[in-house]
Design a protein that fits this description.
Structural class: alpha+beta
Distance between the termini: 23 Å
Largest sheet: 2 strands, antiparallel
Low-confidence stretches: none
Shape: elongated
Number of helices: 2
Number of domains: 1
Number of strands: 4
Strand content: 15-25%
Radius of gyration: 22 Å
Mean pLDDT: 87
Order of helices and strands: HEEEEH
């Protein structure tokens, strides 16, 4: 019989790894919020992290341990912001419009706060699982 002395810790640890990737992508979006020219050509395109949840054994309801993974990092398909700046080096010659990234710093900051709260919640799960395991071991010593 396999006993997991830290229930929920594996799931929370995988969620922490996924949130780490999300925070890195958010910081990259903020850093490139006004990048109008990239090596690929055109303005920077906002990146979005897509998560997936995986069950350890989907046919056994008693072992519903789940894991959170990054399924992929995708480009946000929203249109670029157009700003009238005829003197800008990346301005369209005819219209004077510059394409800016489809990044909203306010939205990125809200995502960063949500990600930070998710990290805090998963750390609390790990702390509680550790405390329960320590109490279980203390009971066994008596």
């Amino acid at each position: 019989m396999d006993i997991n002395i830290l229930p929920g810790a594996n799931s929370a640890a995988s969620a922490l790894q996924a949130e780490k990737v999300r925070m890195e992508v958010i910081s990259q979006n903020i850093a490139n919020a006004s990048t109008t020219s990239t090596p690929a050509g055109g303005p920077y395109q906002r990146q979005v992290v897509r998560f997936e949840t995986i069950m350890e054994d989907q046919f056994n309801l008693n072992s519903a341990v789940r894991e959170v993974r990054v399924a992929g990092i995708e480009n946000d398909q929203r249109p670029f912001r157009l700003v009238y700046q005829p003197g800008h080096p990346d301005a369209d010659q005819k219209t004077g419009m510059v394409k800016y990234p489809n990044v909203s710093v306010h939205e990125e900051m809200a995502d960063l706060i949500a990600s930070s709260r998710t990290v805090e919640a998963n750390l609390a799960i790990i702390r509680n699982a550790r405390q329960m395991a320590m109490q279980t071991l203390a009971i066994g010593k008596k």
